[in-house]
User: Fold this.
Amino acid sequence: MSLDRRRAALWLAMGLGPEWVRREVSASSSAEVSAQPPAAAPALPPGSSAARAEAIGAMDWDELQTAVIACTACDLCRTRTQTVFGVGSRAAPWMIIGEAPGAEEDARGEPFVGQAGRLLDNMLESIGRSRRIDAGQPVFIANVLKCRPPGNRNPQPNEVAACEPFLQRQIELLRPQLVLVMGRFAAQSVLHTDASISALRGRVHRLCVAGRDVPAIVTYHPAYLLRNLADKAKSWADLCLALDVASGALQEA
Assistant:
């Protein structure tokens, strides 16, 4: 499939063309992408945040997921229904990073569900990618925060700091070829900047992960696109940029 055809498919899937029919998520998708963690949570050392981060940095996938489930490092553990670790293939070439779980994510324990999740799935499907682990081009999806902030408020700095080692270890274990960051808060957290999303879009950022240089593309969160339809065209351009970078057609932007 040529790049032009993929771009045309993405244009239609995002509702920018003459017709857009939203795809419903299959009932089996959630079960297929959620791994079962081991029964016992690994112990994290008391004391400094550096010691905690070091311990998390040595975990494998199952240990990491169980540590997230058992985490009480900030007060969000008191209000969550369940943690949201992430879904998708642990060998995926692309990683998608969102902001924080909402009410539906908190209830189901999976990132990007509901209407925003369906839009994201449409966008991924149009470029031949999927959260399903058996897809030909799977992705792994995670959030900056693993617990929902009450009332979907903005995360507090201490909450971001508590979750940062978990996300960092996920990136290290996955070793993605490309990271797609969705939403202003996620972009500012991952890239350690206070720049606006309009200033961060449209170019290739670089993440140093375990000694590797990983390209990162910033785009709007699907929930934002549902409220701001005019910006779908900009998000379409961001995904085209991600395709170009992933295919090797563009190295810098």
The chain has eleven helices and six strands.
